[in-house]
Amino acid sequence: MDGLTLRALTDAVGGTALRLRTAPAGPATPVTGVLLHDPHAPLPYAPGALLLAVGVRAAEAGPLVRAAAKAGMTGVVVRGPDGPVDEAESLGVALLTLGEDVPWHQAHLMLASALGAPSAEDGGRADLFALADAIATATGGATAVEDPHQRILAYSTVPGQPVDEDRRQGILGLQVPDGVANADQIRLVHAAPGPLRLPPLTAADLPRLAVAVRAGGETLGSIWVVDGGALAPDAERSLAQGASTAALLLLRARVARGLAHDQDTALVRRLLEGAADLTTAAYRFGGGAVRVAAFVLDSAASVPDAERTRLRLLDVVRLQCEARYGWPACVLLGTVVYALLPAPGERPGEQPGERCGRQPGPSAPSAPSALSAPSEREAVDRRHRRWAEDIVRSAGRALRVPVRAGLGELVPDLGGVADSRADADLVLRLLDDSLPVATVDEVRPRATLLRLSDVMRVRREWRAGAWRLVLAADADHGTDYARTLMAWFDAGCDVTRAARALSVHPNTCRYRLKQVGRQLGIDLADPDERLVLWLQLRVLAG
Fold first, then answer.
1. How far lies 486's CA from each of 464, 511, 515, 537, in Å?
2. Per-residue confidence (pLDDT) for residue 372, from 0 to 100
3. How confident is the model at residue 206 (pLDDT cuts 50, 70, 90)?
4. Does pTM surpass 0.85?
5. Per-residue pLDDT for 370 more than 50?
6. What DSSP line would sit under 467-529, residue for residue?
7. If I label 108, which of 24, 322, 428, 478 is the partner at 20 to 30 A Cα–Cα?
8. Cα angle for residues 286, 287, 292 (degrees, 5° grid)
9. How many angstroms from the chain centroid is the CA of residue 101?
């Protein structure tokens, strides 16, 4: 078993149940198992394991930490804040603290369940539905499992059990119907130490038997049983047992989601850097057209805690991506939040045949492209731009700081993500208060010149040339050659129009142009020399 990292494990258990005091080898140290300390037996050699210091005071756990180090273990879990942190650090052993209200046997179950989570990602949802059916059978009432936000995660399908309209609406929308009475009952259930019987909310509803699902003092959700008047005599006991099982399943689901999120974040990062395996990326995110959207905080704004604000911006973008496209393919790199936006009909994470219930293999073909006609491409551009505008507005209000968004080129497949990111980064440099959101096509001329400027500034052969003589003459002798040349170039080499733009007599303009040739040796009659000089003055001197 590869195991989880210390960070993933503590995140999975969550709340105050388990806290990492020190990790000398870093929070990415793997954990492969969990053991209960037996004072009557020697410690086994168990590399990567966590040892639960049952029956040992935290302040007296030094010898146990030393023994764990010899046994190759990753860390030791103690109860209480006064554990041997210094000794653990010197021995290279992680030290974790267990919450005072968490029994050792429950901690062992939670940790063992979390460590089993990687194999539960695919089956976790099915396990919850099976549990709902088992509870419904044992209690005699239709059952639903909810998360803390009243989203319905699973529900029973045992035939013949009575239900009411509240249950039907919840199942249809996978969300508990809103209402003050519903919210009040949910608060009562979350506060109760065990199963709670609740009266019907209306004359048309049925009573409920409900219980909170907890792990380590944290509420993970709740289970609700419809009381149709024929619940089993031991329904409360069955429901309490079901809550213990649900806690383990929800912990596994949390770890699986966390691992999937970490893997997707790493994959998005590699795509943006042009280093991803495209077969893996296409299998995970689907095929077809995609573009990169880049979001930043306004650099001119005063942000007291910029790093925390950027993380909040990432949350906003991720939630909007999930709501709109079904999967939050987002990452924060440096100061920029990047998101992958698929063309409509090419949702990330969905492969051909998935809608029909078939699971694709690693060689599943890409989804058909949405770029079959210019009008369709323009429609995609408009949708993506409106989506970015919505985020800029909502994030600006929530974060109290202006947000900018640049959208790169819509590329045919994931192989072009790095190029689309380069476009988006370029657009960000061109945004201001008057233009907080733009696609690369909207600013194409300015973006092209900006990119050309970047190239010219780092290439010696592009920096060399007559333009430096022009600028030096203006600086040393107070001439106005550079401005005159640019006006002449912009006027299509028409002296009269150039003079009008400069507010001088045409003869003055002619004289200056002749002096450029006589004094600086620049042949303005040569079209190639004119073109290079215009480009250098426009891009490098501008």
1. 18, 15, 15, 7
2. 55
3. very high
4. no
5. no
6. HHHHHHHHHHH---HHHHHHHHHHTTS-HHHHHHHHTS-HHHHHHHHHHHHHHH---TT-HHH
7. 24
8. 90
9. 33
From residue 144, give the alpha-carbon distance in Å to each of 214, 446, 492. Answer: 16, 57, 75
Instruction: Give the alpha-carbon dihedral of 421, 424, 426, 432, to 10 degrees.
Output: -160
Task: Give the pair of three-digit tokens for residue 228.
Answer: 């149709």
Pairing of strands 290-297, 330-333: unpaired
Q: Which residue has the higher pLDDT, 432 or 351?
A: 432
Tokens of 78: 């103690």
Residues 66 and 39: beta-carbon distance below 8 Å: no
Average the pLDDT over 205-221 and give the result.
89
Distance CA 298, CA 401 (A): 7
Q: Output the pLDDT for position 369.
A: 46
Measured in whole angstroms, how far is the alpha carbon of residue 416 from the centre of its chain?
Answer: 20
Q: How far apart are the first and last CA of the chain?
A: 60
For the record, the structure tokens of 389 come out as 């505008």
Q: Over the stretch 482-535, which tens digit does the pLDDT of each residue have?
A: 999 999 998 999 999 999 999 999 999 999 999 998 999 999 999 988 888 888
Which letter, b or e, does each residue of 77-96 get, where b requires 16 or more Cβ atoms within 10 Å of its Cβ? bbbeeebbeebbeebebbbb
DSSP 493: S
Please tell me the total number of residues recorded for the chain in this structure.
542
The Cα 438–Cα 13 span in angstroms is 42
Mean pLDDT of 433-450: 90
Do 131 and 244 touch, CB atoms closer than 8 A?
Answer: no
- From CA 518, how far away is CA 524, in angstroms rounded? 11
Query: Strand 49-52 vs strand 33-36: parallel, antiparallel, or unpaired?
Result: parallel
Q: What is the mean pLDDT of the chain?
A: 84
List, as one string, the DSSP characters of 115-146: HTGGGGTTTHHHHHHHHHHHHHHHHSS-EEEE
CA angle, corner 505, sides to 500 and 506, nearest 5?
Answer: 80
Calpha distance 12→257 (Å, rounded): 10
In DSSP terms, 209 is beta-bridged to 197, 225
Beta carbons within 8 Å of 277's beta carbon, 6+ residues apart:
270
pLDDT exceeds cutoff 60 at 233? yes
In sequence order, what are the beta bridge partners of 438? 406
> Looking at residue 175, what DSSP letter applies?
B
Q: What number is the average pLDDT over the span 222-242?
A: 94
Query: Which residue type is seen at 30?
Result: P
